[in-house]
Amino acid sequence: MKPFKKALQVVGLVHSLDPWALAISGSYAFFVLVMSYFPTLFLALVLNQFQAQVPQAELLRHVVIYLAVLALVGLITAGLKKLNTDSLDWISFELNARLTRKSLEMAYTKLISPDIRLMYQRAEEGSNSSGGIQSFVEDMVQSLFTILFSIFFSGAALVSLMLAKSPFTTSLAGFANSEGTILLMGALILVPMVISVWTSARSAGVMYSIFKENTTVNREMSYYVSTIISNEESGKLIRLYRGAKMIQEVIHHTVVSIIASFGKGMLKMAHYESLGQIATLLCMGGLYVLIGIKAYTQAILVGTLLLNVNLIQNMVNQLVKGLSNIASYSNLVNYLSYYSDYLAIEDESFQGASMPDQPYMLRFDEVSYRYPGSDQEALSRLSLSISLDEVTGLVGKNGCGKSTLVKLICRLISPTSGTIYLNDQDIQTIALDDYRKQLGVVFQDFRLFAYSVEENICAGATLDEAWFMNAIAKSHASSMIDHLPHREKTVIKTQMDDEGVELSGGQAQKLAMARAWYKQGATLILDEPTAALDPLAEFELYQDFNHSIQGKGALVISHRMSSCKFCQRILVFDQGKLVDEGNHDSLMARHEGVYYELYSAQAQYYQ
Amino acid sequence: MKHKHRVIENVTYYFKTVLPSHPAMQRHMMIQVICTVFMALATVLIPTVIVNVLASSLGIETMIVQVSGISLGLAVLTYVLNRVTNLGFLEGVSGRILTFGEKVYGKYITMDYTDMTQADLNYSYTKALDNGINSNWEGAEAMYTQVLRLLKNGIGFLVYGVIISFYSPFIFLVVLLSGMLSFYGLNRVRRYKEENRKARSALQTKRRYLKNQSIDMRNAEDVRLYPIADWLNAKNQALKQESFDYAKREHAIQFVADICDMAALVLREGFAYIYLVISVYQGMSLVRFTLFFSLMSGFTTWMKEIVDGIFKLQVASQGMDDLREFLDYPETHFWGSGEAVDGELTIVFDHISFCYPGQEKRVIDDFNVELKAGEKLALVGINGAGKSTLVKLLCGLIHPTEGVIRINGFPQSYFSESAYMGMISPVFQESEIWALNVEQNIAMSRLSMDQNRLEDVLEKSGMMQKVAGLKEGLKTQLTRNIYLDGENFSGGEQQKLMLARALYKQGRILVLDEPTAALDALAEQAMYESYQQLVGTHTSLFISHRLSSTRFCDRILFLANGRVLESGSHEELMRYGGEYASMFHVQSQYYKEDQYEAV
Fold first, then answer.
1. pLDDT tens digits, one per residue of B240-290
2. Measured between beta carbons, which residues in chain B are less than 8 angstroms from residue A50?
3. For the residues B208-230, what does the mean pLDDT come to?
4. B277/A114 Cβ within 8 A
5. What value does the mean pLDDT take over residues B510-526?
6. Is the pLDDT of residue B137 over 90?
7. B93 with A259: Cβ contact below 8 A
8. Which ipTM score applies to this complex?
């Protein structure tokens, strides 16, 4: 049974998060039940003792003992509750920490794959609407334990009740003693439970379909509310393009639609709930009558009567509630199993051979790449060499395959066919960690994090003062950093720190460059490194570049054709193929071709 | 500036705000209260009835009739209660998201941009959302839930109290005393939570940030090319531990509260039994004994619910405080109510100066410029010279600290915000694409659009080819935020989309901030060539680091330290040989064959 397997999967997940969780949960459920039955038990005892005419002093002594035991059990229960709530919180924190870790460490192609993202999104959405893994433990696991223990406790008492015989011989007594009565009692207990489980399941089904109906609408609203509204950039757009009205309409529409579909659904659910509860009520009524008859015919004592009335009431309530919980939350299992699947995605492998001693060349051998779901190849049987000792430029129109090349070099993606070699080694065979260590990349849409400038530049590596100063000097970021309120300790972005600053595009770009420079001895790959810089800053950077790079290699992609002039070699791409190569002078000498066109198009305005 | 209202005041405020749009709410609450109390009484009666029959000489038929009667009554009440409870729940949710939610979002979206960028106001907004609106169990909805709970349990408590007092008024006191004991314990928990709320929610924000960043595709490349994963994981582990420490401490205090609760229980049970043992030995009937005990446990349940309800209501009231703080937050009122002006627009910057709030440095310093109708102005200068600030000032997003900007003689503050902004078509440096389809992103509307206008702007912005190549053309969904198979545009394509959007709007003032930064040379050239046609007779402001673009403008302003240093056409400034000329030389040297030094 699939849902059962999923439930076990989630239980396994809980256990891996906290090995003690299940034991604690079970013990706590046990003691909660004890605390609820114990007073009733004592009451029955007292009543029976009254009927048996026990002397007052002795009874009072019993009361004192009872109070002491009650206190002890209460203490244990409270202690277990503390352990239980600790465990529940831990599970929630640990799950989130593991999810974060998994996302960070997963292979690139997996993280961007729509299937895996959908899995994650479903888990999150389900969790948000149904309560997450804590709910699972509290409402499902604990309910299960409660049911089992209830059956155990009440079962014993019930059995003795059923078997208790009246000493009389009236027809009523005969009825009270008959097997028929026992069967009838059994039926009156089972019937409401069965009905309740059915109605709970139906009720949960209604809830589930409400959610499904509203998934897209919910997602839209959540998108507008959390992404768009709280964002400065969007703020500009909203005001300048009258986006406010549109968003307010979306919100209103969503809210109204959710309430309408909830409205319909909830009335339906109310009917199911009532059905279940009324069935229980009527059967309980019947049970009371039967128990009453037993007491009337003196099969049992008055105290026992009350005890049984209470026990049965308790038991049926617990069982119904427990089974309802399980039925209602069965959807939760579906969502949570996605978390389990997500965490089971294999990590990126860092195994492999070591790097060659002196890496000097990257060679592409008939490399092709096609993005998943695309019918065209982004790169087509590419063969070229890139020397790691010189500055190579990469040019071409938008969409020609330049960024695909960079991703291949970074081993974020791997060729659909063909091989890439570093010296003579297939790069796929080299240990990923070591391989990536030798690349210092500034992506076109690089990202920085809401922590200090220093931490962003080191990006996780340990701080080496000398090398740090070197990196910020080479990226011309020193003066910029000196002017920040807390210099390199300044936190960038303001969302989590009152004293954080928002960097301008140019400032951020210098930080990203510093981050790349901070990787000691790395080959730089720069994608549009001066897009946000003004002409003077750009000039400074390029002037210094050759000096800074000191014989190490770099790969530079830029739409500013001026940057090509200091590249020792230029690769020209068009529609996924290498169409030309050379240096600036040799390429211009052709007086035709992609490079000539691009360069001339820009240069004409500067003549 | 936190204003605390009294709980009663918040309750009144809540109902005054919500009831007008939810007329049945009061009635539903009353029905729920009545049903609950009657059902509780009925449940207590059943064992009493049975014991009564046994203790007296009534026949078994009496018992059957009475028990059946009560059960049927309960059945009817159950049906009514369930129905009304669910209706009431809906009203509670609606009160939260429809009544209050829309108010909060509405205010945030429509307030002046200057306010929106203030950290304080943002913090107030976040609190209003987190504590007032975003959960079923806090803030606005909790006001409804807890008030209802207090009504139900309060009335039940009173009814039972009256009945029990017939036995002994002391019982009432004992229960009250035990309630106070429980209250003391829970109060300590509440205080701990309140004292630590800010710290704990800061931790939660930080953990949530890391979780979101880890799954964000835009970070994926950098995370893998640098040892960022270890760095962020280490931070996350530390946050997790700290959060857990807080949780453990709270649970420890809760443990003490539970002990108090247990002591209260022992007190009640002890007193009840001792009283009863004495009474029965003095001749109290078994029936009365039975009734008493049933009432007793019901009585304590009411009491515990009341204690818990009071606490939850206090917490809910704090959420309401946050909500009201945001809704009452004073806003900047800059705009008037004037309508937009038509035709060709002149723009005058009259002694404009600007400092960011709380700072002394003038980012713009006595800026005086007049743009004639249809004039094309370029703004150049190094990073930090104030270009983007001027753009924001012209767009009306921020307001001058000194001086006035006039359109056709009317000051900015004459116009209504939407009228003024309607006159401007901006393209900013950063592309902002929403999770809508292509045509919706261009028209910034979800309703019908002008197809002719769309085609025209697609042509002018150079997007025609790309859109023609998409499977669903203009109806293609963009980004994967809502539809997971949406299309993601490249940097260059995004930039063209931004231009299309600005053109579609047909604002008479065109503002372009680095519109070609992500375009390749040919696409850039195409844009320049159509620029004259693009801009037409619009008055326009153009900012770019690529000085090649300034040639198409009538006049160029060179900005430094917030002031105009040089002004003139490209030829005039080159002849002048000042800052502009030298910057132009710097950039063009790479494009001049003879002047470049070989590597």
1. 999 999 999 999 999 999 999 999 999 988 988 888 888 877 877 777 777
2. 280, 286, 289
3. 92
4. no
5. 82
6. no
7. yes
8. 0.89
Chain B residues with CB under 8 Å of A560 CB are 546
A residues 94-153 closer than 8 Å to B (CB)? 94, 96-97, 99-101, 103-105, 108, 111-112, 114, 117-118, 120-121
Question: Strand pairing of B364-371 and B347-354?
Answer: antiparallel
Segment A123-127 shows an average pLDDT of 81
Task: Please give the residue that has the higher pLDDT: either A270 or A208.
Answer: A270
- pLDDT confidence bin for A1, thresholds 50/70/90: low
Query: Which residues in chain A have Cβ-Cβ distances shorter than 8 Å to B71?
Result: 281-282, 284-285, 288
- What are the pLDDT digits (tens) for A505-536? 888 999 999 999 999 878 999 998 888 788 88
What is each CA distance from B95 to A5, A287, B86, B244, in whole angstroms?
A: 40, 43, 14, 34
Strand spans (E) along B420-499: 424-427
Please check whether residue A445 touches B, CB under 8 A.
yes
User: Distance between CA atoms of A307 and A304, rounded to whole angstroms?
Assistant: 5
Main-chain dihedrals φ then ψ at residue A527, nearest 5 degrees: -110, 110
Instruction: Name the pairing type of β-strands A439-442 and A523-527.
Output: parallel
Residue B399 DSSP one-character state? -
pLDDT at A494: 65
Cβ–Cβ < 8 Å for B382, B582: no
DSSP state of A580: E
State the distance between the two ends of chain B, measured CA to CA, in whole angstroms. Answer: 62
Say what the pLDDT of residue B184 is.
Answer: 92
Q: Is A67 on the interface with B (CB under 8 A)?
A: yes
Angle at B196 between CA B195 and CA B202, to 5 degrees: 135
- Whether residue B94 and residue A259 make contact (CB cut-off 8 A), yes or no, is yes
d(CA B480, CA A28): 44
Nearest to B495 by CA among B459, B523, B530, B535: B523
pLDDT at residue A495 in the model? 65
Chain A closest-CA separation from residue B233 CA (Å): 6
Question: A267 to chain B nearest CA, in Å?
Answer: 6
In terms of C-beta density within 10 A (0-12 exposed, 13-18 middle, 19 or more buried), how is residue B531 classed?
buried
Amino acid at A140: M
Contact flag A233-B231 (C-beta cutoff 8 Å): no
A100: pLDDT strictly greater than 60? yes
Q: Report residue A565 CA to chain centroid gap.
A: 48
Burial B54-77 (b: 16+ CB within 10 A, else e): beeeeeeeebbebbeebbeebbeb
Residues contacting B592, CB < 8 A, separation 6+? A606, A607
pLDDT of residue B598: 38
Closest chain B residue to the Cα of A546, Cα to Cα: B599
- What pLDDT shows up at residue B496? 87
Residue in A277, A291, A496 closest to B206 by CB: A496
Q: In chain A, which residue's Cα lies nearest the Cα of B287?
A: A302
- Interface probe for B, chosen from A61, A89, A103 (most Cβ of B below 10 Å), is A103
| pLDDT tens digits for range B392-420 | 999 999 999 999 999 999 999 999 998 99
What integer is the mean pLDDT of A171-199? 83
Nearest chain A residue to B49, by CA: A292
Q: How far apart are the CA of A135 and the nearest CA of chain B, in angstroms?
A: 15
Q: What is the pLDDT of residue B526?
A: 79
Residue B560 forms beta bridges with which residues?
A: B563
How far from B17 is each of A359, A524, B131, B256, CA to CA, in Å? 72, 61, 18, 39
Give the Cα separation of B186 and B338 in Å (integer): 57
What backbone phi and psi angles, to 5 degrees, belong to B449?
A: -120, 165
Query: Which residue in B181, B215, B245, B416 has the most chain A C-beta atoms within 10 A of its own C-beta, making it the best mutation to test that interface?
Result: B215
